[in-house]
């Protein structure tokens, strides 16, 4: 986004202009395909790199469709960003594929009801983990007031709410003056725009959320979610002018590193392996720097994985590569004798939290360690409790009081049947019909 002003064009016009500019500048040299780590795992490997990217460029330039190889490349992009530094024309090929994926979903979305399903799944998962005051804080936007900082949660991080409350505890410890904006009512718009191909809806959703930020007249909007970061800060960069900066929360923590260091008084006696992603390595490296500051913490290794995050829009786009890298990460935890695996984003935490089951190491988010180092008590990780229970009778015994207290009265058998898919974010793979528009009100939420 750009400083100061208002929307210059419709989102459709903006995306078309960006697409044409890339199509004009790209020479179809194929270097971005050559370095791409997901290519060897799919159909794109069966065509010459120049032909694969040439078809993407043709599609962005108005051709009605892409070749199967180009479609495979586009749909398996995990956002790792390896292609960005190799482009001789200074094009961002990751953005090029985001634009192609958006155009593709306008033609035939594989997940036409994704937002509805995702929003209901998020609500159910958060309601299973939070007391009502916390639930309200995440789902009900606060009244506008002048606040220098907005902490923006995005949508899917509400599935792992403990790390958001940890982050708020850190901001409180730094005496930051902030308000929290998040949940499906404040989506960045990526679901409608990129996944559902509904750019009219995406434009409305994005503009509503940016206007909500502006209601606080903030100097900074601090992002948690890497998907929002890429959508608002990269794909839609320049779409709407704003008076605030958009940064990841870890950039803010680094800007306050002396204040944090002064508060890291409690030894964190752990030997840890940190999991980060190549797609926004600045975020991972910021966390690494924070961990190095913590007294008592022995950071044995940082393992960099492909993709910009774990989960549906990140590494899961190329499942075979993700499986190999996840196995390698767990192997490094074992080989280094670490007692703690430190996760980065919500998608990473949800992916690995169940790995604690073998009892050899703990899985904690970096926010758990920040709170611990500051002498606080990290928020209870109910997702971990449920994942480790792995028995939906036991899970429901624990979750039902939370659900009822948050006003969700769900049929126990229905939730036992669909809970595993809800916890696995199956809607991003076209699943969770039970939460779609044709499912009636089976889930009475
Ligand atoms: S961002 Fe990564 S996965 Fe996507 S095209 Fe570039 S190199 Fe390939
Ligand atoms: S590296 Fe750049 S110029 Fe070459 S094909 Fe990719 S986007 Fe086009």
CATH C-level name of the largest domain: Alpha Beta
Supply the helix-strand structural class: alpha/beta
**CATH architect. name of the largest domain:** 3-Layer(aba) Sandwich
**Spans of at least 5 consecutive residues with low confidence:** 1-5, 438-445
Which whole number gives the mean pLDDT? 92
Helix-strand string: EHHHHHHHEHEHHEHEEHHEHEHEHEHHHH
Radius of gyration from CA coordinates: 21 Å
Tell me the helix content: 40-55%
Summarize the entry for a quick read.
The protein has 20 helices and ten strands. The protein has helices at residues 11-25, 31-35, 49-60, 68-76, 93-108, 114-127, 132-139, 161-173, 190-195, 199-214, 226-235, 249-255, 257-263, 281-293, 319-336, 346-352, 366-373, 382-389, 392-405, 412-423, and strands at residues 2-3, 149-152, 178-181, 220-223, 241-242, 245-248, 270-277, 297-305, 340-343, 362-365.
What is the element layout, followed by pairings?
Elements: E1 2-3, H1 11-25, H2 31-35, H3 49-60, H4 68-76, H5 93-108, H6 114-127, H7 132-139, E2 149-152, H8 161-173, E3 178-181, H9 190-195, H10 199-214, E4 220-223, H11 226-235, E5 241-242, E6 245-248, H12 249-255, H13 257-263, E7 270-277, H14 281-293, E8 297-305, H15 319-336, E9 340-343, H16 346-352, E10 362-365, H17 366-373, H18 382-389, H19 392-405, H20 412-423
Parallel strand pairs: 1-5, 2-3, 2-4, 4-6, 7-8, 7-9, 9-10
Helix pairs in contact: 3-4, 3-5, 4-5, 8-17, 12-14
The structure holds iron/sulfur cluster (2 copies).
């Amino acid at each position: 986004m750009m400083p100061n002003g208002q929307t210059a064009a419709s989102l459709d016009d903006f995306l078309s202009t960006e697409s044409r500019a890339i199509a004009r500048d790209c020479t179809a040299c194929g270097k971005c395909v050559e370095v791409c780590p997901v290519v060897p795992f799919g159909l794109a490997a069966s065509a010459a790199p120049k032909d694969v990217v040439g078809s993407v460029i043709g599609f962005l330039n108005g051709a009605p469709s892409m070749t199967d190889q180009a479609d495979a490349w586009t749909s398996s992009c995990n956002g790792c960003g390896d292609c960005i530094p190799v482009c001789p024309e200074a094009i961002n090929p990751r953005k090029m594929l985001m634009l192609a994926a958006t155009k593709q979903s306008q033609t035939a979305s594989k997940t036409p009801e994704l937002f509805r399903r995702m929003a209901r799944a998020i609500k159910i998962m958060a309601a299973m983990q939070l007391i009502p005051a916390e639930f309200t804080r995440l789902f009900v936007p606060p009244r506008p007031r002048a606040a220098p900082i907005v902490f923006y949660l995005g949508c899917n991080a509400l599935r792992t709410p403990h790390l958001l409350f940890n982050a708020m505890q850190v901001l409180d410890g730094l005496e930051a003056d902030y308000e929290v904006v998040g949940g499906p009512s404040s989506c960045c718009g990526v679901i409608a725009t990129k996944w559902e191909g509904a750019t009219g809806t995406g434009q409305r959703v994005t503009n509503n959320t940016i206007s909500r930020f502006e209601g606080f007249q903030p100097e900074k909007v601090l992002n948690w979610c890497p998907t929002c970061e890429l959508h608002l800060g990269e794909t839609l960069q320049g779409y709407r002018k704003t008076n605030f900066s958009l940064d990841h929360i870890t950039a803010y923590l680094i800007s306050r590193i002396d204040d944090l260091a002064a508060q890291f008084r409690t030894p964190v006696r752990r030997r840890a392996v940190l999991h980060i992603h190549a797609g926004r390595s600045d975020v991972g490296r910021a966390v690494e720097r924070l961990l190095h500051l913590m007294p008592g913490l022995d950071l044995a290794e940082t393992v960099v994985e492909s993709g910009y995050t774990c989960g549906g829009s990140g590494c899961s786009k190329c499942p075979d590569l993700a499986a190999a890298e996840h196995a390698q990460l767990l192997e490094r935890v074992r080989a280094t004798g670490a007692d703690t695996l430190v996760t980065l984003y919500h998608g990473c935490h949800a992916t690995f939290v169940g790995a604690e089951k073998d009892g050899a190491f703990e899985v904690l988010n970096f926010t758990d360690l920040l709170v611990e180092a500051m002498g606080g008590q990290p928020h209870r990780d109910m997702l971990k409790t449920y994942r480790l229970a792995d028995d939906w009778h036991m899970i429901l015994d624990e979750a039902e009081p939370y659900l009822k207290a948050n006003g969700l009265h769900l049929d126990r058998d229905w939730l036992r049947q669909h809970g595993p898919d809800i916890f696995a974010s199956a809607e991003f793979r076209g699943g969770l019909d039970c939460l779609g528009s044709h499912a009636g009100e089976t889930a009475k939420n």
